[in-house]
Design goal:
The protein is α+β, with helices and mostly antiparallel strands and 655 residues long. The protein contains 21 helices and 22 strands. A seven-stranded mixed sheet has the order 10-22-21-20-11-18-19, sandwiched between helices. Strands 2-1-3-9-4-7 form a six-stranded antiparallel sheet, with no helix packed on it. Strand 1 (149-153) and strand 2 (156-160) form a beta hairpin. The longest helix has 44 residues, at 8-51. Residues 1-21, 134-144, 242-254 and 369-373 have low confidence and may be disordered.
Length: 655
């Protein structure tokens, strides 16, 4: 096979391209702040010129100056309000902000008109910064479907786009590469990591003519596959399609300010209209201009600056606090959503377990009649077993070889593999068999019946025709798995469920060990999705799903809150999820719930404070007892208190 020549010029070009991309990204982030900076600078200069009564700053110049200062932050809001009106949604916060600030200009309060809109723009920037910060810590979505396939054409393997590979063509997959299309194995055997597809923690050993699936990772040796499906019909493509469909069904929680504005805005607008015209019916010396002036002041006072800035700041504080605790929320709405979760559904492999094989138990002649055993003790048993497994590259063999055995190392010779069953060879002049029960039975070895009830992966050893014992291999629970379940329950979550692609018996065993409410194993991605959809149909049920594999992506998207393991999780799972646990610790789920509740509590405190003061000042303004400066001062003061309250989130700690 021809080697692909590495072009240093291409590498340099790619490096420059990446650098340029990062530079463009930072530039675009900076550009978002330019309008607010321009408006703020011009506002401060204008106020200074007014304060010192500069001679040339008279007549039309202040209007032009403040008008220019207003445009960078005001025009986008006015435009958004107009677009909403065209769609039939009149009473939005954009509409209120627009008429309130334009009203300030009409009555000659130009600085206040700019300041009010600047407050709004700053609040939006805080909210956007929070979301961008979370997204900046999350890997960008990478298409897990392999980008190329080595297909055999014209007597050689050529690298092509997988979409161009036809059914029946032969492809080659090197060690560590993902299989690009579904197919049938042409090589004698293959060891594949299918965890991303099935959730199965144990790598699959596939033999010739068996099916292999796109997205599986080749672990051992170069293999060849005959394709049986086109790229668009592969396993990975099907899962990604489910993700898109599930995302389309998923409704996002709207921020409170948008819901509140739909009620608050029309009330304020109609009150202002009433304040302008109704006095004509009750006041003898009615002057239209005076009551219009008072109504416009009323509109400016009603502008929800404190609400607008305090709510995003509260969420920003929550997002920042969560980030420092290793939890990334992709938006403020998910902080709210976490407070409503009452059912947690979790995957097993890589979520509550480490996804790494360890010896769980070694059973030798101490557990059987001596007549059945061929070794003196555990150390000798393990030396025989390790001598054989040294000849294997299987992940289970690696787990066995981590065992520390006393005494001299044994050496195995004449080792050969029995397809799908295990190994046979010679150790210290004795015939040794290492493998599953099928290997033992086919060689006439009597196996104790109690091994039939073992749910973990089991490796048996026979020496000179006698059963010597076995070891069980299991995926270890994460150190904080028990603590995680305890804290989730303490957080008030009423139901904890496990859904896994791993064997049902193993899933049920882990569930029992963690004292979960119920569990189900041997599930395909479609099955997990169906189970969660069923849960969501139950009254008053808000579901959070926690997973890490590609196979978890559809259910992550369909759940009310999707939570992904950020350290070892797949790119698709991370991108699809709403919340990312950077440290892969399931115990952070309870902390995420508590941070969400603390954030929501502070946000509601800010809402109560801002709304309470606003009502008082509005009444005073309607009665002509509050001036524009008093209203602005009250609004800024409330905003400052709200900011100080939100800052408390930065100092809080959660268990």
């Amino acid at each position: 096979m021809k080697k692909k020549k590495i072009n240093l010029r291409d590498l340099k070009a790619n490096s420059n391209k990446a650098h340029s991309h990062n530079h463009d990204k930072s530039s675009s982030q900076f550009k978002a702040y330019i309008p607010a900076v321009i408006s703020f600078t011009m506002l401060i200069i204008g106020i200074g010129l007014d304060y010192f009564d500069v001679s040339f700053f008279k007549d039309w110049l202040p209007i032009i100056w403040y008008g220019i200062a207003y445009l960078p932050v005001g025009f986008p809001v006015v435009k958004e309000g107009w677009e909403s009106i065209k769609k039939g949604d009149v009473f939005t916060e954009f509409f209120l902000m627009s008429i309130a600030t334009i009203g300030a200009f009409i009555i000659g309060e130009y600085p206040e008109g700019v300041a009010v809109m600047l407050f709004y723009a700053v609040g939006e920037l805080f909210q956007n910064a929070a979301v961008n910060r979370a997204k900046g810590n999350i890997k960008a979505l990478l298409d897990v479907r392999p980008k190329e396939a080595n297909v055999f054409r014209d007597g050689d393997y050529k690298s092509v786009n997988p979409e161009s590979v036809e059914i029946g063509e032969k492809i080659q997959i090197r060690v560590g590469e993902k299989i690009p299309l579904d197919g049938m194995l042409l090589s004698e055997k293959a060891s594949l990591n299918t965890a991303a597809l099935t959730g199965e923690s144990k790598p699959d050993t596939i033999t010739k003519s068996e099916k292999v699936y796109a997205g599986s990772i080749n672990l051992d040796g170069v293999i060849e596959v005959r394709t049986t499906k086109e790229f668009k019909d592969s396993s990975i493509a099907r899962i990604l399609d489910m993700v898109q469909n599930a995302t389309a069904r998923k409704s996002k929680t709207e921020l409170f300010i948008r819901k509140f504005a739909r009620i608050y805005t029309p009330i304020v607008v109609f009150l202002a209209i009433g304040l302008t015209f109704l006095p004509y019916l009750f006041v003898d010396d009615y002057v239209f201009r005076d009551w219009l002036y008072r109504a416009l002041i009323f509109l400016v006072i009603s502008c929800p600056c404190a609400l607008v800035i305090s709510i995003p700041l509260g969420y920003f504080g929550g997002l920042g606090a969560a980030s420092r605790n290793g939890i990334l929320f992709k938006g403020a709405s998910f902080l709210d959503a976490m407070t409503k979760v009452n059912t947690v559904v979790m995957d097993k492999t890589g979520t509550v377990t480490k996804g790494v094989f360890k010896i769980k138990e070694v059973v030798t002649k101490n557990n059987f009649a001596p007549a059945l055993s061929a070794v003196e003790g555990e150390a000798e048993f393990m030396q025989y077993l390790m001598a054989m497994e040294e000849q294997s590259t299987h992940p289970i063999a690696k787990a066995i070889l981590e065992y520390k055995a006393d005494g001299a190392d044994f050496e195995a010779t004449e080792v050969s593999e029995v397809a799908g069953k295990g190994l046979k060879g010679t150790v210290n002049g004795k015939q040794v068999l290492v493998g599953n029960k099928a290997l033992m039975v086919s060689n006439g070895i009597e196996v104790p019946s109690e091994t039939d009830t073992i749910v973990e992966s089991i490796v048996m050893l026979a020496i000179d025709g006698k059963f010597a014992g076995y070891v069980t291999i299991a995926d270890e629970l994460k150190e904080d798995a028990h603590q995680a379940i305890k804290q989730i329950r303490e957080a008030g979550i009423s139901k904890i469920i496990m859904l896994s692609g791993d064997k049902d018996s193993i899933t049920l065993q882990v569930s029992e060990e963690l004292n979960l409410d119920w569990a189900k194993g041997s599930l395909l991605p479609e099955d997990k999705l169906n189970e969660v959809e069923k849960l969501k149909t139950q009254p008053d049920t808000t579901v959070a799903f926690m997973g890490d594999g590609i196979n978890d992506a559809p259910v992550l998207a369909a759940s009310d809150v999707g939570i992904a393991m950020g350290g070892l999780g797949s790119d698709v799972a991370i991108e699809t999820a709403d919340v990312i646990i950077q440290t892969d610790q399931p115990s952070k789920i309870a902390r995420a719930v508590n941070i969400g509740r603390s954030t929501r509590r502070i946000v509601w405190q800010n809402i109560g404070l801002a709304f309470g003061v606003k009502v008082v000042v509005l009444i005073l303004g309607a009665g002509g007892l509050a001036t524009m400066w008093e209203a602005v001062f009250a609004d800024v003061g409330v905003a400052l208190l709200a900011i100080l309250n939100a800052v408390r989130l930065q100092r809080m700690t959660w268990s």
